[in-house]
Amino acid sequence: MDVLYFAWVRERIGLPKEKVETSAATVADLVEELRGREERYAAAFADLSAVRVALDQELSDFDAPLSGVREVAFFPPMTGG
Amino acid sequence: MDVLYFAWVRERIGLPKEKVETSAATVADLVEELRGREERYAAAFADLSAVRVALDQELSDFDAPLSGVREVAFFPPMTGG
Amino acid sequence: MRIAIQEEPFDFGAEAAGFADGRHDMGAVVTFTGVVRDLASGDLDAMEIEHYPGMTEKALRKIAAEAQTRWDLGDLLIIHRYGRMAPGERIMMVGTAAPHRRAAFEAAEFLMDYLKSRAPFWKKEHRKGATGWVEAKDSDEAALRRW
Amino acid sequence: MRIAIQEEPFDFGAEAAGFADGRHDMGAVVTFTGVVRDLASGDLDAMEIEHYPGMTEKALRKIAAEAQTRWDLGDLLIIHRYGRMAPGERIMMVGTAAPHRRAAFEAAEFLMDYLKSRAPFWKKEHRKGATGWVEAKDSDEAALRRW
């Protein structure tokens, strides 16, 4: 599964994209798994109320299932316009 | 006093502007006086709910006094923009 | 601030590009343009706009001043034509520039609502040799009550 | 309908002039332009905009389609830049054309409210050598609840 990071989530984790092998059932499970990996992930996901997630380029929720998903993206609330 | 007419009020009365000597106290009195003059005025002022008035180029009301006023204008509801 | 009342066409692209151009303190710019609209019937030959010289200038200045009192505007533009225009021609435009988008949108809507019903312009349609004055709409009068 | 996501500047005057130009059935055209705004401090060196290629296109198409469902629009335009911009530069624009002014205004406000909070763009400010991500405003999230 491709995992993408944008804005300060990308800066804290230190890379824009990586391949992750996971059996996490939901986004929340994936976040838990990443948090346990290294301090930089724990820092990026310290406050989930400030993080948004997209599954296959559609905005989604942390309790959404990951089955069949090819691309997960984490980023702060958007500031377009 | 200069009396001006615009749009269909002008067309019904048949002229854009005229000098009127009057001792009418209010706009309503002036309208009454004009109505009594000729049929074309009566036609123009048949339905006052469809006529607006400006005194010295400021929107006003039919019960406004005419004392000191130099220019009275009658016209239909405006359709700008 | 600029207010122009004119018979000749205006260059919308140039006016839009020039309006508030280079201002660093205004994050939001809104323009509204009114266009001579032909109905589905497609039989409109021309729109003719009459106005009240002298009062028109005063009314537009008053409306513009009111908008500047209500919103924090960095710039404001009103251009309104009179005379004869073909379908598709631009009748008028307003421009508003403000630090934030909500103020720019609201001020532009306010200007339009007031221009519709409080500025001394009257529209006459020419169709197949016949003419008719455009009637004021109750919805335009109602729109003023928002402000 | 046109949607453009690009790094290079766009010619606002030309885009505004060309949008819905010559349409006889649309009486009202609204444009909104977002500009890189420097605060009173005047120390903004640049604004940098990051986006999510792929998702951005999808999100803008979805927002545009939603606007076309809700309002009777004759045309619609969205241009949004990414990359580095100086204060005063135009970041983005939307254009809406409709038979009547209310629809054109509402659709433009709707597009802006959704672009602010639902299109994957992130702004970073560069000031005196330091950088900071622009935080989303509660008022922008609240603005969505109108629709």
TrEMBL record, chains A, B:
Query: What's the domain of life for this entry?
Result: Bacteria
Record's protein name: Molybdopterin synthase subunit MoaD
Automatic annotation (TrEMBL), chains C, D:
Q: What is its EC number?
A: 2.8.1.12
Q: Which GO terms describe its molecular function?
A: molybdopterin synthase activity
**Organism from which the protein derives:** Allosediminivita pacifica
Which keywords does the record carry? Answer: Molybdenum cofactor biosynthesis
Q: Which domain of life is it from?
A: Bacteria
Give the protein's recorded name: Molybdopterin synthase catalytic subunit
Zinc-finger keyword on record: no
Write out the similarity annotation. Belongs to the MoaE family.
